[in-house]
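Target chain:
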Amino acid sequence: MIAPAETARIREFEFSDEDFRSLRELVREVSGITLSEAKRELVYGRLSRRLRALGLTSFRDYRALLAGPEGKEEIGEFTNAVTTNLTSFFRENHHFEHLKTEVLPELIARAKAGGRVRIWSAACSDGQEPYSIALTVLSMLPNASDYDFRILATDIDPKILAQARAGAYDATALETVAPAIRNQYFREVEIDGRRRWQVDDRVKRLITYNELNLIAQWPFKGPFDAIFCRNVVIYFDEPTQMKIWSRFAGMLTAGGYLYIGHSERVSGEAKASFDNTGITTYRYNGKERRA
């Protein structure tokens, strides 16, 4: 009889220390994400699906594919498989309350006067964060799309961006959306035999979705009045985190806001550029601006 502990170690594919080390290094190289030993089972589980899809029998063969001339396309699938897309509408709602009460009144006044307003949702996943931002804006300025008021939403995963652009969600995803907002800005539709809630075009018009790797070149100059980058930088090592914070400082207007995840803190030289004004809410003070 096989003991429970031994059963837990039986795998469909052999997954050696060398396999995990090599794949962990590749994740860091292409995305900047640092995977701890605790993520070994996550990596195995998600990449096993890729081995099955490709008809491979070992992680050694998969590593050879990634390293070879035919591996360029698979690198994207690999990265998408191991990056986490956990999100929800109005997640960490205190950020949206702060945006509504402390930030938007001034931005809306500027827009109405003919000025430019830009908000960036970095690592936007399937769109629930940028749609939450847009819904917050529309609650105060229903015709926001008539002004120069736009939201940029980016993510490393093109497949998750396609879901974001589609803007169709299961009913469970809308449990954190107030019924009045749901009834005003979503409509129930049937897609592939499933009942979904479709985001209204009035919300979609405010948002532009683009693919972006946070550790690569950023093909825009900003500036942004607010940046949401939450529960993402925590997956980078400390030097990369400090670089990202500095780059965000270089993208913000003076007095602009940076919203980060509940387990994250601005660190390094960029710390002097931000004043902590609330729970994981930072205001750019204009010091040591860095691109």
User: Anything to note?
Assistant: The chain has two domains: 4-82, 94-168+202-284. The first helix runs from residue 4 to 9. Residues 4-82 form a domain with the Chemotaxis Receptor Methyltransferase Cher; domain 1 fold (CATH 1.10.155.10).
